[in-house]
């Protein structure tokens, strides 16, 4: 397993190299000017040079943000932050006693998370200087689309940064991500570092958690994009309506100048109706009901592993592009990437020239429809919710008569448990051999998760008289090995789930596991050939 950086070492990589100094009084004045109640206990001339939400990552001179959480109040860790060199503490009434007992100056605010993003912008100067930001939200496709945008921007000669599920890259050697969207203090530190390193444009995945937890506050997106909305994260959001409302916040004028919204279904159209930013709509499934979208995908044809397609614009513009990843959903992702770059002001002719010269949309994304072998077709994909699994399985059906689809997957622990039987049913409908295994069960009993997934598959088979066979095999490496042993050269194996990750948490223990490595090994052991891993993108599995 790659050697993990300590929180402080990782934090240092997310900070600007040149320190700026802000006083608590300047922060207080800002809060008062913007109508927020706040006051200072102790020295209001205290100077801070950084801001941090985690005591374990505090660097000398920081404002430690002691925020309430689901498990703890951050004030519990204020003493540890002080020991690490915090210069002051930002907290709320609940944290006041513990924070002020330490003798450090305290900035007291009504709701800490409500102000932390804007204060981080003041500390790092990102309210004045920030790269042009491309933000992506939606249930599926954020990572893939942001890689595609970055690739197009690079083809246009831009210096780029990227923040997402796989990596954080501030124009330097990338580091593996912990969260999809980091906390606000880290995001602002990163943006400042990017500017120092000459990054002009950055792509950022904006998870619904980050919107709920106000992690992107204080940032302004030049162009934000919406991929789709399907069932996921109901453990946090409670209902699809609430999940929708959380994501919709990205498309308010106060956060985004322009929003490119995929309107392939009712959720997308509702998003377009609600957004207050300028909206460009995009239809990626060419049906008559979508013909009124600003940009429409047309003439999609298979090309290599991916597709060639056209994008038709509101003023009869036509763009032609080629994707490299399997799956028609990757045409949707690619189209969104292209329209977002256009929306940022790049001229169509210049964009078409970059697409023609470098084929930037054929970029590989670790663990996203990553082809490991061609015979049998063996693919590792990060599908971990019902819609993604449906789309991934829908795109791998073999053409040879009598050939079969073998799927290896599971459901994650400590997350939306209602997905489990639904994913089982999806697999039973689309595959011939369903191998249910573990997928990052965290602290939950993996056997119970497998049971719920397999029960969904069996119920679907019974209800619809389907012919799929269901196996429960664990650990995951054994399930992958079993799939390779069952496959014939015309079959397809899809290993779905946390494919790009380099470990799985099982009952509180991190076990090293890379699906791609396991699948390669298993295929070779069964006498099949595998493809060379791509070397053109950062991959956490190669680190360390
Ligand atoms: C549900 C959720 O997102 N929770 C996040 C939230 O936790 P919380 O507010 O409940 O914090 P807590 O654990 O009670 O701790 C309270 C405070 O004490 C601080 N603390 C805690 C311990 C310590 O030693 N020192 C310290 O300072 C914490 O930083 C926090 O500020 O704030 C914490 C501090 O940043 C996050 O670590 C934590 O993310 C947890 C680990 C998590 O798993 N989040 C996932 C679900 C998430 O955010 N995922 C999305 C992507 C989802 C997807 O698309 O799949 C993402 O953007 O990554
Ligand atoms: N546009 C899309 N529509 C439906 N499914 C998609 C789409 N794009 C990708 N997928 C599926 O979702 C999986 C995850 O893709 P990707 O990582 O790009 O999404 P994401 O939104 O970043 O997810 P996460 O935040 O959980 O990483 C893919 O492996 C694929 O199976």
Mean pLDDT value = 93
Helix content: 25-40%
Describe the strand arrangement of the main beta sheet, using strand numbers: 11-10-9-12-8-13-14-15-16-17-18
Task: Identify the CATH class of the largest domain.
Answer: Alpha Beta
Number of separate structural domains? 3
| Rg | 24 Å
Give the oligomeric state: single chain
The backbone outline, from C-alpha atoms, is: globular
Secondary structure class reads alpha/beta
Structure ligands: ligand UAG, adenosine-5'-triphosphate
CATH topology of the largest domain: UDP-N-acetylmuramoyl-L-alanine:D-glutamate ligase
What fraction strand?
Answer: 15-25%
Cofactor: Mg(2+)
Protein name: UDP-N-acetylmuramyl-tripeptide synthetase
Subcellular location: Cytoplasm
Pfam families: Mur_ligase, Mur_ligase_C, Mur_ligase_M
């Amino acid at each position: 397993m790659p050697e993990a950086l300590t929180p402080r070492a990782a934090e240092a990589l997310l900070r600007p190299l040149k320190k700026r100094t802000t006083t608590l009084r300047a922060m207080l004045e800002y809060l008062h000017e913007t109508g927020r109640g706040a006051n200072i206990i102790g020295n209001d001339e205290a100077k801070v040079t950084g801001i941090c939400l985690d005591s374990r990552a505090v660097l000398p001179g920081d404002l430690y943000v002691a925020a309430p959480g689901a498990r703890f109040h951050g004030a519990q860790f204020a003493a540890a932050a002080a020991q690490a060199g915090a210069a002051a503490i930002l907290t709320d009434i609940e944290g006041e006693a513990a924070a002020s007992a330490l003798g450090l100056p305290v900035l007291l605010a009504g709701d800490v998370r409500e102000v932390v993003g804007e204060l981080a912008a003041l500390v790092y100067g990102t309210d004045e200087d920030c790269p042009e930001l491309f933000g992506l939200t939606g249930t599926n496709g954020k990572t893939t689309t942001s890689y595609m945008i970055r690739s197009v921007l690079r083809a246009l000669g831009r210096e780029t940064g990227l923040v997402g599920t796989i990596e954080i890259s501030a124009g330097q050697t990338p580091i593996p991500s912990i969260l999809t969207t980091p906390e606000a203090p880290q995001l602002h530190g990163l943006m400042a570092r990017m500017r120092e390193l000459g990054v002009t444009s950055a792509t950022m995945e904006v998870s619904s958690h980050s919107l709920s937890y106000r992690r992107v506050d204080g940032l302004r997106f030049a162009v934000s994009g919406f991929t789709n909305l399907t069932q996921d994260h109901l453990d946090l959001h409670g209902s699809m309506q609430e999940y929708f409302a959380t994501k919709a916040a990205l498309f308010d004028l106060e956060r985004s100048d322009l929003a490119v919204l995929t309107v392939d279904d009712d959720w997308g159209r509702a998003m377009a109706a609600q957004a207050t930013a300028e909206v460009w709509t995009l239809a990626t499934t060419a049906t008559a009901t979508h013909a009124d979208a600003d940009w429409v995908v047309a003439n999609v044809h298979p090309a290599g592993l991916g597709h060639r397609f056209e994008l038709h614009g509101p003023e009869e513009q036509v763009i032609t592009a080629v994707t490299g990843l399997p799956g028609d959903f990757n045409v949707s992702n690619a189209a969104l990437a292209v329209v977002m770059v256009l929306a940022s002001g790049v001229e169509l002719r210049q964009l078409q020239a970059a697409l023609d010269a470098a084929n930037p949309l054929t970029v590989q994304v670790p663990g996203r429809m990553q082809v490991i072998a061609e015979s049998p077709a063996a693919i590792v994909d990060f599908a971990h919710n019902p819609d993604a699994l449906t789309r991934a399985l829908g795109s791998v059906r073999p053409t040879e008569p009598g050939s079969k689809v073998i799927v290896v997957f599971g459901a994650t622990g400590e997350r939306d448990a209602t997905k489990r039987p639904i994913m089982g049913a999806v697999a039973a409908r689309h595959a011939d051999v369903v191998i249910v295994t573990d997928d990052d069960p965290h602290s939950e009993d993996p056997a119970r998760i497998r049971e719920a997934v397999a029960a969904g598959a069996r119920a679907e088979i019974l209800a619809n008289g389907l012919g799929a066979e269901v196996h429960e095999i664990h650990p995951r490496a054994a399930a992958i090995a079993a799939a390779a042993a069952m496959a014939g050269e015309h079959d397809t194996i899809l290993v779905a789930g946390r494919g790009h990750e380099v470990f799985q948490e099982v009952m509180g223990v991190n076990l090293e596991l890379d699906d791609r490595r396991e699948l390669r090994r298993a295929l070779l052991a069964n006498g099949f050939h595998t493809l060379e891993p791509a070397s053109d993108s950062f991959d956490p599995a190669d680190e360390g």
